[in-house]
Write a structure and sequence with these properties.
This protein is mostly beta strands and 241 residues long. It contains 3 helices and 11 strands, in the order ααβαββββββββββ. It starts with a helix and ends with a strand. The model is unreliable at 1-16 and 22-27 (pLDDT under 50).
Length: 241
């Protein structure tokens, strides 16, 4: 009788595969869960790390600024994904504010910031948390970000009808601390072995920013271009377990 009970318990424990076993047997997972069971996958279902490759490529070919970011995501029931990211960002570009109509001269300045750190914390929610194909995920997420950066503003030129040739003094060593939130959608698809790829698109809103006595920064590490309220990442994932 004891042997029979142990066998039954083992069989019950394997009725819903867990972790890598679930992924190996996804083709035979039942569509319906046993009565009374809420989640198909265990509480601790995996840990992954990912890097954004969009911003570095964008920096190489089209821009002179970038944020380099690495993020870890914990898989809870394949439904909730707490996330934390760290990274560094820099900028070295000339910002053109347009051409003054009366003089036909550009209004511009050079914004240069050294590599500066940022952090993000948040949560993603998988809309397909009980799917029999766990590698494909469609998620909603929200993140909080904070960054501290230091920048030099040089070659500040302002043209107007009354003052056509005004060059303002350089502003060196300007320090900014910025806090913001991001909210959007994330997609992830398995590519091979432990590797997956995906992208996220989001809106971003500043919560607070210090150090703006002489103007706001053109770029914030992790936040990106301050002239846009939208962001995009293309990510390469590696499943640790």
């Amino acid at each position: 009788m004891l042997c029979l009970n142990v066998t039954d318990l083992v069989a019950q424990g394997r009725s819903i595969p867990k972790g890598s076993e679930a992924k190996a047997q996804e083709a035979v997972l039942p569509d319906e869960l046993p009565e009374g069971q809420t989640h198909r996958y265990p509480l601790l279902n995996g840990l992954s790390i990912n890097v954004d490759i969009f911003d570095p490529l964008y920096d190489i070919f089209l821009a002179n600024h970038a944020s380099y970011e690495a993020m870890v995501m914990l898989d809870l029931h394949h439904r909730f994904f707490p996330m934390a990211a760290i990274g560094l960002g820099y900028a070295d570009e000339t910002s053109n504010n347009g051409i003054e109509f009366s003089t036909g001269k550009k209004q511009e300045f050079t914004f240069k910031s050294e590599m500066s750190p940022f952090m993000k914390f948040g949560m993603a929610y998988n809309l397909r948390y009980n799917s029999t194909k766990p590698e494909d995920m469609y998620m909603l997420f929200a993140r909080y970000g904070i960054a501290h950066s230091k920048a030099d503003l040089t070659n500040i030129y302002y043209a107007s009808a009354n003052w056509p040739d005004v060059k303002l003094p350089d502003l060196l060593g300007q320090e900014y601390t910025t806090q913001w939130i991001e909210a959007g959608i994330m997609l992830k698809v398995k590519v091979w072995w432990r590797f997956s790829m995906g992208w996220d698109m989001y809106a971003k809103i500043k919560l607070a920013q210090s150090g703006t006595k002489y103007g706001k920064p053109a770029f914030v590490p992790g936040y990106g271009d301050c002239s846009s309220i939208f962001g995009f990442n293309f990510r390469l994932f590696y499943e640790i377990f």
